Predict the structure.
Amino acid sequence: MVAKQIVWLSGLVPFEQVEQIMREIGGKYISRSSVWRLTSRYGNKLRAVEALQEAMLFDYSEMETCETNQSNERMGASMDGAMIHIREEGWKELKVGCMFDIEKKLENDPHIQGENITCQTTHNSYVAHLGSPTVFGKKLWTEAHQRNWEKAKETLIIGDGATWIWNLANEHFYNSLQLVDWFHATEHLSNASKVIFGEDTPIGKHWFEHWKTKLYLGRIDHLVRSMNNQAKKQPHKKDAIRKEVIYFQNNSTRMNYQDLQIEGYPIGSGMVESAGKQYKARFCGSGMHWSRKGAENLLPIRTAILSKRFDFAWKQAYIPPPN
């Protein structure tokens, strides 16, 4: 079906490239404006399907054609933001969520001369919303429900420390473990080091490495005490240091890195950061400025492709003409 091919390609490459691919490989001339109209039409239909699912919370077990095959032992979700340019509005945050299974693995570790528990995230699926956290949270919870989140024995939410992420976690995923991802935690630690000791100083690097180990071990109270002591010694830097202190204080219960890693949980949010880059790859090409409606219509198409559900999504959105 030509329309399906065009809409699928539109979720992968710019409209002008879709026109070129259809002409040179498909042997069909489809104007760029026709590509845009088809994408808008079916993207809007997919949005309507998503809205219905959010309203009714369809059971995921009914989606027999979906390619996801979750273990239901352990599941996780991660949230992040990515910026895209909307005409007449400027750069706006696209909220992105990734849902995944967590599979524990036993691997030989030469450092301990024995087996060590590691993990991998599998069966990733995604949601995205250009707008408020409230609507995004509903979309993410719908995806979780459709994937039988409630039946998983253990669940984990990973985020970068943004307040809106933990508000949504507390609202929709209140029984789940929460974790600030390791990269963002160490980034804040690095910022604290630079504030206290300056850029690229030997003492600053030593301080960072020392407290990086303590951070991994969950010694957040010790880290905060050290930073507060530095603030007393350097009152002219007090406000900047205090900003990082507050970050660690607010997230201290979400920084049990060693314990969770030993138990076979991921401690990074690479899966959702990768998703953000994959959305940006389609929406943030050179010179791309989107209308809000155009971006919103393309989002469910891109999401279905990234989640490996495009065939299923198309069946939901496509209504064949009458005989």
The beta strands are 74-86, 90-109, 114-130, 154-159, 177-180. Residues 2-63+290-317 form one domain. The CA atoms of residues 55 and 142 lie 9 Å apart. Residues 58-71 have pLDDT under 50 and may be disordered.
